[in-house]
Amino acid sequence: MKRLALIFLFFFVALVFFAKSAKSQESQFDFLRAYQDYTYNYSIYRRAHNDYVLAKGQYLSYKTLKSKTNAYDKTLAMLQARDEAIKTYLTALRLKLVETEGVPSLERDALFGRIDTEVAWYEDHRGRLASAGSLEDLVVNSEEVKDKYTSTEILYYQTLISILAGKENDFRERLMAVISDIKDKVAEIRQNQDKNTRKIERWVLEAELRLTRSQEKTFDAQSVISELKERDRDKFKIYNESRELITESHQYLKEASSFLKEIIDEAKTSDTQ
Amino acid sequence: MSAQAVQKTQKTPVNLSQVGATGKFSIGSLWDRLPGGKGGYVAKIVKVVAVALFIIFLLIIAYAVVLQLRKKQLATNQLPVAIPSITLPEEVKPTHPVYANDSVILDIETDIRTLDSELISTDLEEANLNPPLLDLKITFEE
Description:
Chain A has helices spanning 2-27, 31-62, 65-99, 105-129, 135-192, 198-226, 235-268. By secondary structure, chain A is mostly helical. In chain A, helix 5 packs antiparallel against helix 6 and helix 5 (135-192) packs parallel to helix 7. The model of chain A has no long low-confidence stretch (mean pLDDT 92). Helix content of chain B is 53%, strand content 0%. Chain B starts with a helix and ends in a 21-residue tail after the last helix. Mean pLDDT of chain B is 76; it is low at 1-23. At the A-B interface, helix 2, helix 3, helix 5 and helix 7 of A face helix 5 of B.
């Protein structure tokens, strides 16, 4: 009976240990890890693509069965690596979104849903590739990705802008919290009549105005990217336009922060100085 | 006096307008006697000289007036005699910065400085997150 209890205890301890280990491994899968996965898979794709280009050249030159088989193998490997690169890139974006503060939960959940659907599609597609019986079948499979990729690209850019806008939202919220603290302190100073607060109050309004401008620019950026269509040829250009608006929004935040520093310096000095 | 002499004198009658109707001396008569009459060159010269003299007269009077005024002004602008007096230094208000070391202000300042450095260092390019470049045109046609 004692031995049975000891065995039971041993299994229990082992179970707890493995559970903890699994949990810690899961929690360690952060953006950095996902990004490393992506860069690794992307490098595999690049190599596989080089092999495919070479094999394709040989097949088109010699048209032998051997060169065709080789082209098939290399194309299959390249297509699998391509699907894997897209999948891991989407996963990295997802984790970046998780770690970015300031993204509204509704927007985040919507993007998670879309990313998960895309990842599942590429996962399924990658699984089906091996069943392609010929080079022609692989070309057909590749065409499926080509058609799908237009919507995947839109998801990339919309997620990236959400990440950048989230960063801006977070900064803006923190600056607003600081302004709120300043307002409370200024009210106290005014009540104590230690100092004329008129100038500070005016400067606070200036800082708030910068935050409003920043908010407007962020909205504009999101509006531009939300209008991205599958038929748009240069999606990257539209993404850059949107990113430019985020940069402008950021500039307003910098100005607001600079104003707040001046406000604090002013609050620290006496009126006669 | 003989009758012949009387007749002679009557033949050359004296123009009364030249010596004055009353027989006295007048400028009008002189004016008429000038060579060329009233509109002659001598009359013109006389007119010019008269005007010039009048202007000179006016200038002299103006100069005299200005001199008088200057004298008066100098009399009023005389500097007062400096009288030494005691001047007290201006009252300096206390410049004690009440909120320089206020804990709330210092906390806010720390928050702002942290935020500011984050705003400057934040990566808005996210270039490492640019989508992968993929070959989507897979064909085996020449």
